[in-house]
Design goal:
Layout: E1 4-8, E2 15-20, H1 24-43, H2 46-62, H3 64-75, H4 79-99, E3 107-110, E4 113-121, E5 124-128, H5 134-147, E6 151-155, H6 162-173, E7 181-183, H7 188-197, E8 201-207, H8 210-221, E9 226-230, E10 236-239, H9 245-257, E11 269-273, H10 277-288, H11 309-319, E12 326-327, E13 341-343, E14 360-366, H12 369-377, E15 384-388, H13 392-401, E16 406-409, E17 428-429, E18 442-450
Parallel strand pairs: 5-6, 5-8, 6-7, 8-9, 10-11, 10-15, 11-14, 13-14, 15-16
Antiparallel strand pairs: 1-2, 3-4, 4-18, 9-17, 12-13
The protein binds adenosine-5'-diphosphate (ADP).
Length: 452
């Protein structure tokens, strides 16, 4: 079997890069490097670790355009979105550079002495990331991992590794010591799995499919290895009759067609109260016409191609033969293009329940508040979601009743590096972002000191 990795531009199908796969020996070597770098990194004065991470953030910001172009060529994301991602990578690293000196322990009142807690770094952590937001997902893990005093081995998705490889170079350029942040590129089942198996890796942080997440959970069980999972979703965008329907409909396409629907937070089920269903559909279809599909290098493009021919085929399993109320246009010629699609299928159709990870949205009518909550929670997933209403009490009642981790009201935007992000049920385990994520990259140590 060939060990050469061939990367293609999804908009042109042209080969953009060839490189050898890492082997399991390469992973072991990276883990050894991370292990060797660990004592100095964890003992470094917090202010110095913070300063180095800040320099890393600034170096990324200075290379934002370059990183954005790499991402767009490798993954097909429209260039405007890639630039936004590159700048967010810098902001994420900046946030966690500031967190180094603020993740404090506590002192607890006890009899006969004092009791204090410490957040201890884990050691070497393995980070496994997907292809849909390659550099962003890398930063969401590398930032808190390094801030907490760990060293890291990152395995990006083998089809979109280029921006992560560049991030590792920029880290070195910024002065992060060699061995603190390592990248290995290769298939999940061998190179990724080695991070699960290797006894010197103390934690695995994973973003990807629910199916692979379950496999990793079983693999980590043998060593009781720490594991956080950010998995799939089938999130609900709930529009009540008393909402600002124009605003909700104008925002709905972006919530599912952004990144060609290749987004675990995609609001791919729109639930609309029956009395405004027709009006909403009219506005939603109108707004979706702006989602032109085309060359992702053009700043005017709203939506690029899907990532690979294989993924296009997977999405088509749902969309081929699907009766739609709106189907957009796609370019002709090479490229893994898929149009935006809006459908109102029967509720028991698989497309209403399975994660499609493409630009296909289902719209489902509901009768009242209880009905909306029932449909929303009728899913194995619980990652994200939105509620649109002008009634503040109803908004709060509904978000409290939704079995999902990351929600928004009168907006579809709920992911910020300073606020916790993660899923209920089969959407994941643990949280990313905010100061909370640092608890997942440290062990809590408790010490009693007798004074009497
Ligand atoms: P997607 O369906 O989005 O491609 P996957 O869950 O297949 O997501 O992949 C997400 C990441 O997990 C990728 O980096 C992939 O290489 C890695 N991966 C896949 N299978 C395994 C495995 N058995 N062990 C470790 N990592 C894996």
């Amino acid at each position: 079997m060939s060990t050469l990795l061939t990367l293609r531009n999804p908009a042109t199908e042209a080969v953009i890069h060839e490189m050898p796969h890492a082997t399991v020996d390469d992973v072991d070597a990276a883990i050894a490097k991370a292990t060797a770098a660990s004592p100095a990194w964890r003992k470094m004065a917090p202010v110095d670790r913070s300063r180095l991470l800040r320099r890393f953030a600034d170096t990324v910001a200075a290379h934002a355009d370059e990183l954005a172009e790499i991402e767009t060529r490798n993954m097909g994301m429209p260039i405007g979105n890639s630039r936004w991602c590159a700048n967010m990578v810098a902001d994420v690293l900046h946030y966690f550079s500031g967190a180094v000196e603020k993740h404090t322990g506590s002192s607890i009142p006890v009899a006969g002495g004092v009791d204090i807690t410490f957040h201890e770094p884990l050691g070497v952590v393995g980070l496994i990331t997907p292809w849909n937001f390659p550099m962003l997902m890398a930063s969401w893990k590398v930032g808190p991992a390094l801030a907490a005093g760990n060293t890291a081995v990152l395995k990006p998705a083998e089809i979109t590794p280029l921006s992560s490889m560049r991030l590792a170079e920029l880290a070195l350029e910024a002065g992060i010591p060699d061995g603190v942040f390592n990248v290995v590129v290769g298939p999940g089942s061998t190179v990724g799995w080695r991070l699960v198996e290797h006894p010197d890796v103390r934690k695995v942080a994973f973003t990807g499919s629910t199916e692979v997440g379950k496999r990793l959970m079983k693999g980590c069980a043998d060593q009781v290895k720490r594991l956080t999972l950010e998995l799939g979703g089938k999130s609900a965008n709930i529009v009540f009759a008393d909402a600002d329907i124009e605003k909700a409909a104008a925002a709905a396409p972006g919530a599912v067609f952004d990144n060609s629907g290749q987004d675990c937070c995609s609001r791919s089920r729109v639930l609309v109260q029956r009395s405004v269903f027709d009006r909403f559909m009219e506005l939603f279809i109108d707004a979706s016409k702006a989602w032109t599909v085309g060359d992702p290098m053009s700043p005017d493009t709203a939506m690029g191609p899907l990532v690979t021919a294989g993924h296009l085929a997977a999405v088509r399993q749902f969309s081929d033969g699907l009766e739609t109320v709106y189907t957009g246009e796609v370019p002709t010629g090479p490229g893994y293009w898929h149009p935006v699609m809006i459908a109102t299928p029967a509720y028991d159709a698989p497309v209403c329940h399975e994660e499609i990870f493409g630009p296909v949205v289902v719209v489902i009518p509901f009768d009242d508040e209880a009905d909306a909550i029932r449909i929303c929670n009728d899913s194995i997933y619980g990652l994200s979601g939105s509620v649109w209403t002008r009634d503040g009490s109803k908004a709060l009642r509904v978000v409290r009743a939704m079995d999902s981790g990351t929600l928004s009201v009168n907006s579809n935007s709920s992911v910020r590096y300073s606020t916790p992000f993660g899923g209920f049920k089969q959407s994941g385990l643990g949280r990313e972002h905010s100061m909370q994520v640092l608890d997942h990259y440290t062990e809590l140590k408790n010490v009693f000191i007798a004074t009497d």
